[in-house]
Structures are given as C-alpha cells and as structure tokens.
Amino acid sequence: MTTNNWAAFEEAEPEFARAVRARFAQYPHHVLGTLRKDGSPRLSGLTVDIRGGELWLGMMAGSLKARDLQRDPRFALHTNPGEGEAMPDGDVRICGRALELVDPPELHRYAEETETPHPFHLFHADLTEVVRTTVQGDELVVRSWTPDHALRTLRRRNDDEPPHEDAATDTPASPTT
Fold first, then answer.
1. 4-21 per-residue burial string, b: 16 or more CB within 10 A, e: under 16
2. Going along the chain, which residue ranges are E strands?
3. 102-151 residue pLDDT tens
C-alpha cells in the first residue's frame, strides 16, 4: 500500500524489524504523537497492529488523534516503557506519515479479521524512521533505519568521549524497486 511500509522495512532489515516488532508485542498500549491544529504536540494512547506488510494505527471514530492525522499525517509512535526502570529490551520509536484507509470493503475486512467494532479510523504507516535504543554494558546503543540509509548504530558512553558510529553500518540502503 505504501512505498516505505512495514514490508519494505522488514525486507531491508529483517533482524532489526524482528527486534522492533518483538518490542511492540510486549505491551498492548503505546504512545502516539500527533500535531494539533495549532501545531502543538498531542500524545495519546494507542494499540498497533502489524499485519499484511503494514503497520496499522486504529482509533475510535472522531477521536482527536484521528482528526490530527487527517489534517497533518506526520506522527511519532513510541513503545510502552513497561514497568520499572530497567527496559531490558530498550525502547523503540517509529516516525512517519499516517495514510487513512477509507475504502468500506477494506475497512470491513480489517474489522472482521481483528474484531474491531465499527465505526473506527484506520491508518497505515509510511515509515520515515525507525529507532531502537538499548543499553549494552556501559554504552547507550542507538540503532536507526531510514528508507534512505541502511541500519546505523551509534554508541555512546557516559563520559566525555563523543558518540561513535559503527563503521560497517553507514552505507546507503539499496533503492526501493
């Protein structure tokens, strides 16, 4: 459905995509950031669904977050941090553009597959960035993917040394066909 959908991300970086999907699967509710009419941010709770090569964002009919996305499709999605402070699997942020599905037969099909009550809004994500942050030993490790670049890894210690990028990860992604 989209050029930079979940399937394209998964094809480009299958191992990273598995880790990101697993992190979202740990909890049912996550945090969606949208832009209000005045341009200020709005944070809302949301469940996500990854199926059929798409990252789906579903919401109640007439919700403010749905109206925000209809007006300005840019979003940021952050995984639920869970309990405590440890976050052993790190956290994940996905940014992109939400594209609303409005075709009644497709909405009905999705509702039947997922047991989603009507009416509702359904958006699929055109991904612009996927970031996973973890702690490994004494380093903060930030792995990021964009459609224009292969997976990059930035490592940072809690000292005066500047962060450094793993050399092997700084290569342009292959063009999407």
1. bbbbbbbebbeebbebbb
2. 30-35, 41-46, 48-51, 54-60, 74-78, 91-100, 120-136, 139-146, 149-157, 164-165
3. 999 999 999 999 999 889 999 999 999 999 999 888 889 999 999 998 89
Cα–Cα distances (Å) from 73 to 70, 88, 92, 94, in that order, read 6, 32, 20, 14
Here the tokens at position 78 are 């952050």
CB 66 within 8 A of CB 19: no
HSE (side-chain half, CA atoms, 13 Å) at 11: 14
Task: Of 142, 145, 172, give the one whose Cα is nearest residue 8.
Answer: 145
| DSSP one-letter code for 172 | B
H-helix or E-strand spanning residue 39 = none
Beta-ladder partners of 48:
57
Give, in degrees to the nearest 5, the angle at Cα 31 between 29 and 35. Answer: 145
Confirm whether pTM is higher than 0.90: no
Q: Are 144 and 130 within 8 A, CB to CB?
A: yes
User: Binning pLDDT at 50, 70 and 90, where does residue 177 land?
Assistant: very low
Closest CA to 46 of 36, 67, 60, 62: 60
